[in-house]
Known about the structure:
By secondary structure, this protein is an alpha+beta fold. Helices cover 27% and strands 36% of the residues. The radius of gyration is 16 Å and the shape is globular.
Amino acid sequence: MKEIDIRPIADSDFDAVWGIFQQILAAGDKYPFDDASREACRNYWYGAGAKTWVAVLNGGRLLGMYRLLPNQADRGAHVASASYMVSPAAQGIGVGKLLGRHSLEQARLDGYLAMQFNYVVSTNVAAVVLWKQLGFTIVGTLPKAYRHQQLGYVDVYVMYRLLDDPNNWPL
């Protein structure tokens, strides 16, 4: 039976992370980076302030990853933000949902009170549907804010969800 584990990223994961990163960026339909170096990839997934987790199949093959960090500094640091990538070879089997659920639980454990995605490409239908299933709502639309490789300029969504009832939030 296949088992997918989610664990903190390790230095030894970098080559697999780099491979997924390159594939996702090459598609030109989800992330704003045109072409990033190995160093930029390392800084993005391993950089200061980011907590990164990976989904691994049977303790071996890396299927995807997410990073969790404060959306803003200081007075906005109670709101988390996250970024996700799933290997194209592993898309459509629930890895994104596993990572999404894990990130919500991890955000709660880390003391975040809400989560915000600042830049969800509207044509990334699988992501938009998944985030809605996990309780996010579209709170804003940025008209034509993303230059999609095949479709040209498309809208971007800002999506948000509370992680706890605001009546329970500390003052």
